[in-house]
Amino acid sequence: MSVGSSSIRIDAHAKTTGEAQYPGDRAPAHALAARVVFTDQPHARLLRLDVAKAEQMPGVIAVFTGRDVPVNEYGLTEFDQPVFVSIEHTGRTKVESDISRWEADHLALVVADTDEQATAAAAMIEADWAQLPIVADIDQALAPNASLVHPELKLDSNIYHTYKIRKGSIDAAWADAAVIIETTYELPYQEHAYLQPEAAVSYIDEEGRVTLEVAGQWAHEDQEQIAHALDLPVDQVRVIYPAIGGAFGGREDMSLQIVLGLAALRLAERGEHRPIASRWSREESIVGHHKRHRGRIHAKWGADSNGKLVAVQSEAWLDAGAYNYTTNKVLGNCHLGQAGPYEVPNAQIDSHAVYTNSVPGGAFRGFGGPQAAFAAESQMNKLAEALGIDPVEIRLRNAVHDGSIGITQTVMPAGVTMLQVIERCASESQFHQPLTPAEPFSPFASLPPVEGDLLRGRGFACSFKNVGFSFGFPERCEATIVLHGKPDSPTAERGELFHAGADVGQGAHTAFLQMAAEATGLAFENMTGGFSDTSSSGDSGSASASRLTFMSGNSILGAAEAADKAWRNGDRPAVGHFRYVPPPTEALDPETGAGAPNFSYGYVAQTVELTVDRATGHIVVDRVVSTHDVGRAINPANVIGQIEGAVVQAHGYALSERLQVENGRVLNPRFSTYLIPGIGDVPTRIESVVLELADPNGPWGARGMAEMPFMTYAPAVVAALHDATGVWFDSFPLTPDRVTAVLAQAAAPSSSGR
Amino acid sequence: MTLRLPAFELLTPQTLEAAVAMLADPAATIIGGGTDLLPKMKRRQVTPPTVVSLRGITEMSGIHTDDEGRCVIGASTVLEQIAISTVVPPVLAAAARQVASPQIRNTATIGGNLCLDTRCNYIDMPELWRQASGHCLKDGGEVCWIAPKGNRCWAISSSDLVPVAIALDCSVRLASRDGDRVIPIEDLYQNDGIAHQTMSGDEILVELLVPRCDVRATYRKLRRRDSIDFPLVGVAAAARFDQTKTCTSARIIIGAVASAPLRATDAERLIVGRKLTEDVIEEAAQLAARPVRTQDNTDMGSRYRKWMTSVYVSRALRDLVVEDA
């Protein structure tokens, strides 16, 4: 059996020894160096741009600006961003090119013999700007008479996208509520902090294609965006992903792809054929790519005396920053999550995307779900407290199950296992046993035990997350399997899988080969792969939305069947190609939100135990029990790796990561001031509990799982902190200064206690 | 663009005499483990044309006990060696264990830690960022962006070992072409973010001299992350007690709240002649924090760090309480 075994990852040796080649390693010695010049203007109109002096600098090959771009616009879901901010352009663009709306908008690309020369030349670019009012945050964006970030949209505010849900009647329902909880939650940014900063190499390949070796999440989408801006047929662009140093949603959008593709195209026209390489510093990476959305959710929930929900009213605002990126999609996910994984008879939910001049918000593990889950699960825990009902019990009374009508007024996709996951998490974590006293912190802890100041607490949260693209977006995934062997043999000797799906570090390619081996009956060792090259693979869709195992597995099953048929027809080699299309989804009704937005979900519940030092506000998470229905663990070791990795990432989100953005500028674009957890800071114990309750449409029953462990962590930590201190925290990260300040405020005589 | 080192000439003297001679060149800078200097060079905070490595001077590395019973720690000794040493006072080893991360402790030297440059959110940024925001006082500019109305630099002294070394009343040996001198380590520092050390540019810190340790001593470090971080507040305390558990001498040193380690002399005076009861400890902690003027120039706000100063002084003093047998 290949499926279900923890096969050693096919990239393990190369990555352990350092042989693996990431995009930054792909630049040959003779490559030219390119440097992207940011505008450094959160909101300003370009009055003059002069690159003549830069072009005269030693070693400079070319300076590219907006006038060189055939179609000066791009964007993953909407073309709302210029490739370069520029006065001169070809006219084939809908956005106003001469306005910088973000400090990291691109102004020029300098290509030189060396990086030092490119950097020196970049400093010689002259630009004059007329400052425009900076819309710094949601409050400023929503203020009366606020400056508009995108006036070309002809909207009357910076809110440019809104989803609604109108289900039943909340007005009538409040009367049935024994308890109503109303809270405003403030949600912070998060930086992806992947290991490998943005890097790429571009050249014209032997077939004349503009070729990019770069790290991304969806090679064919990168290809399309490059082709659009360069005005090339799609098949004249080739995208190859070498090893990818983490992504987490942060590589869904363009960084170096278009500008380096442009350089390869234009330099080839001039007879210059050296490859062009560029690499961002960590500072450039943090300033220059999108973040998990900051936002605000105002939630009002009512439950009857038995703890059954009677109504949910909720309104969310996500800071989209200067450009849409995937905000409209992220917002949709945040929208659906605000009622939690619960049966809610009456609901009114409004979710808004808001343009500002801050760093764009975009895809990040959970895709809007964690923000919603923080509000929903905190609301549920507060209701449980107010009603005197156990937090597990109140969830069991409300959670969705097979046949439940979801918040969008349609039946949940079959295979709803929320109840089983909640129950299993409660039992595995001994949630109903007394909590043991505080143990000393780790031997290297900065805060040795001071008994009187240590408090322990335990919290619970559960959630769900869709698998795959939502809201009617055309979802598909292609695979090709080639079987080799003797003409007279009934079985193949070896097989090849061609698949574009991105292995961003999660182990996708190993799982693909396991599934391909299983589907063809070949041994894992006899299956090899050709991955992530648009010239050899069909479109796989993105490595995101917890979809890749589900979608690629189904495409591999189909390709194996087709290859087997070809084999039995006598083809040698036998080639099978398959394009999997999952059950269709629907866009939501614009007024009521009715519709079937998703085809599959993964379910999660977590128990968190922590110790807090009430004098310093320092928190140590002692134990996390993270419980998941993954449908089928194709590679159990990698599933546990995803759970532990997501918990650690969520730990940073909940406790330490504080991106400071003021007036459109990131103030701490460095890992010495933007603090991700180190090995001494992560939870002392993470227990991964893996359930395998098959999804009816999943390959071998598998569901997506990689985002789910992130969903519940912050609200579970806050619930545990409340259990320890008696105080609710409605904003995070729970940095020591915030914890001590909120505790002091709660202890002050004038405080209402919450 | 990635941050790369500027060009420099590397000198590798094999003797202290040779090193001292090389340092007569005012353009020369000492490098120990390089964990402080090299990042600053990459950020172009300093661009010394000549860098003198002390690594080849074997006599400057290692720990031994001298004729007077003092523990002598060569300046080139790496912090990990101190962290695992059974010869140095346990409090010094414990403080060394709390510096940065294992990788840095295996590279960074005690000499470098005792000479650690002061830190600040403004100065410790890449060159482009500093150009854009305007150079600060420490960076050759006209104004301190932390306290623009003043005329001094508020960058922070962030060594973990210096407060402990002062608490233990250590000395340092400094060498120059004019010969050696030994001074109390306390006299090596002054509360100015730019001129934070009193030694002159042509002197080399050769060794740390730790007197025979007959005090109860502790070091308490507050930081965000246990894995790696400079102190937000570091408190070293050392005291002697008589048979009635009355304190007969005391030193309380607060690190990371000023441009030099601060001695809490009022608190020291309070506890000498008293027993360390909870009331005395609390009063001492309040006294110790009173003169602290933290600025918003590192992680966490100034209010929090001042508040935590009293919490950490009280925790340090509680460590010194002599338990009943």
Can you characterise this structure?
The complex is a heterodimer of chains A (754) and B (325). By secondary structure, chain A is α+β, with helices and mostly antiparallel strands. The model of chain A has no long low-confidence stretch (mean pLDDT 95). Chain B has 325 residues and is of the alpha+beta class. Chain B has three domains: 1-57, 2-Layer Sandwich (Uridine Diphospho-n-acetylenolpyruvylglucosamine Reductase, domain 2), CATH 3.30.43; 58-116 and 156-210, 2-Layer Sandwich (Uridine Diphospho-n-acetylenolpyruvylglucosamine Reductase, domain 3); 216-320, 2-Layer Sandwich (Enolase-like, domain 1). Helix content of chain B is 27%, strand content 20%. Chain B is built from eleven helices and twelve strands. Chain B has helices at residues 16-22, 37-42, 79-83, 90-97, 102-105, 110-114, 127-133, 161-167, 265-271, 278-289, 302-320, and strands spanning 9-11, 28-31, 50-53, 63-65, 71-74, 171-176, 179-184, 204-210, 216-222, 233-241, 247-255, 262-263. Chains A and B meet through helix 3 and helix 18 of A and helix 11 of B.
Outline the fold blueprint.
The complex is a heterodimer of chains A (754) and B (325).
Chain A: H1 12-17, E1 32-38, E2 44-50, H2 52-55, E3 60-64, E4 99-100, E5 106-112, H3 115-122, E6 126-131, H4 138-142, E7 159-167, H5 170-173, E8 179-187, E9 199-204, E10 210-214, H6 219-230, E11 237-240, H7 257-269, E12 276-279, H8 282-288, E13 295-303, E14 309-321, H9 327-337, E15 347-355, H10 369-387, H11 391-398, H12 418-428, E16 454-466, E17 477-484, E18 494-499, H13 508-520, E19 527-531, H14 548-568, E20 574-580, E21 601-613, E22 619-629, H15 636-656, E23 661-662, E24 665-666, E25 685-691, H16 708-711, H17 713-725, H18 736-747
Parallel strand pairs in A: 1-12, 10-11, 14-15, 18-19, 22-25
Antiparallel strand pairs in A: 1-5, 2-4, 2-6, 3-5, 7-15, 8-13, 9-10, 9-12, 13-14, 16-21, 17-18, 17-20, 21-22, 23-24
Helix pairs in contact in A: 6-7, 9-10, 10-17, 13-14, 15-17
Chain B: E1 9-11, H1 16-22, E2 28-31, H2 37-42, E3 50-53, E4 63-65, E5 71-74, H3 79-83, H4 90-97, H5 102-105, H6 110-114, H7 127-133, H8 161-167, E6 171-176, E7 179-184, E8 204-210, E9 216-222, E10 233-241, E11 247-255, E12 262-263, H9 265-271, H10 278-289, H11 302-320
Parallel strand pairs in B: 1-3, 2-3
Antiparallel strand pairs in B: 4-5, 5-8, 6-7, 6-8, 9-10, 10-11, 11-12
